[in-house]
Write a structure and sequence with these properties.
six-stranded parallel sheet; 2 domains; three-stranded antiparallel sheet; alpha/beta; Rossmann fold; binds pantoate; Pantoate--beta-alanine Ligase, Chain: A,domain 2; about 290 residues
Length: about 290
């Protein structure tokens, strides 16, 4: 089937077969391929990953697929912003191809395989969204294999997701290089996220303070305050801003996400938060 080029300045592949046919042409010419997996609603954070991809390989594929299997039934799958025309306009001239399959192409009738994860997938998001990473790992493995990518690039905002994907690719011997791109932030430091559009003006203002509290909590731990004391104080400040739920505010080993039993970081560490303001769940992280 020909690629859909009618409504955008960038070709769109809708099926695995179309994607593979285009990638095969590139491969025949000896070109390398990067994949930037996204769920669309693209912002500057995504575009920075595309720029990174452009520097690494000859060709760049951006996948746009709101993956149903990584949302729990009570989560925002149906409300998740879908902005395909705007996404295509943002990618024109930056990426070579959009891969935008529908759910039937990704998960045809009879689909019954899911990647099962332990270790780095278990704490933090794994505790609060127990089915999430199985959905992410399965779709990411499929996207990488479909695109036959040499490189796949993910944002560091989903720090644990990046760690889970690195582990999965190593464990399953998937021949791809995984790269992380730095978090892009708004002027007040709020981490860019497709979910920020859910915030009311007051919530948006409060959300802009989350990164400030993370930075100050990390600084107090670096100055010798025990982790539990610093994170307890940080959590109280987050609630005082108007957040109604904190799933976690923790300082963990940056690579394994293991806790620090001594109460102080003994290896490179990361502070990670997930908190809800009204119904919007925000996550963020930074080095300690
Ligand atoms: O980070 C995301 O947007 C998604 O989890 C991903 C990696 C595109 C898989 O659906």
């Amino acid at each position: 089937m020909p690629l859909d080029t009618t409504s955008h300045d960038i070709p769109v592949a809708r099926t695995a077969a179309d994607l593979r046919a285009t990638v095969a042409e590139w491969r025949k010419m000896g070109e390398t391929v990067a994949l930037v997996p996204t769920m669309g609603a693209l912002h500057e954070g995504h575009l920075s990953l595309v720029d990174l991809a452009r520097k690494k390989t000859d060709r760049v594929v951006v996948s746009v697929f709101v993956n149903p299997t990584q949302f729990a039934p009570h989560e925002d799958f149906s409300a998740y912003p879908r902005t395909e025309a705007a996404d295509a306009a943002r990618l024109a001239g930056k990426a070579d191809l959009i891969f935008a399959p529908d759910a039937g192409d990704m998960y045809p009738d009879g689909f019954s395989t899911t990647i099962s994860l332990t270790g780095v997938a278990e704490p933090l998001e794994g505790t609060f969204r127990p089915t999430h990473f199985a959905g992410v790992a399965t779709v990411v493995a499929k996207l990488i294999l479909r695109a036959q990518a040499d490189v796949a690039i993910f944002g560091e905002k989903d720090w644990q997701q990046l760690a889970v994907i690195r582990r999965m690719v190593a464990d399953l011997d998937i021949p791809v290089e995984i790269l992380g791109g730095p978090i892009m932030r708004e002027a007040d430091g709020l981490a860019m996220s497709s979910r920020n559009v859910y915030l009311t003006p007051d919530e948006r203002k409060a959300a802009g303070q989350l990164n400030v509290i993370l930075k100050e909590t990390a600084a107090s731990v670096s100055s010798g305050i025990p982790i539990t004391e610093a994170t307890r104080a940080g959590a109280a400040r987050i609630l005082a801003l108007g957040f109604n739920q904190i799933d976690y505010l923790e300082i963990r080993d940056a690579a394994s996400l293991a806790e620090f039993p001594s109460g102080h970081p003994t290896s490179p560490a990361r502070i990670l938060v997930a908190a809800k303001i009204s119904r919007t769940r925000l996550i963020d992280n930074m080095p300690v």
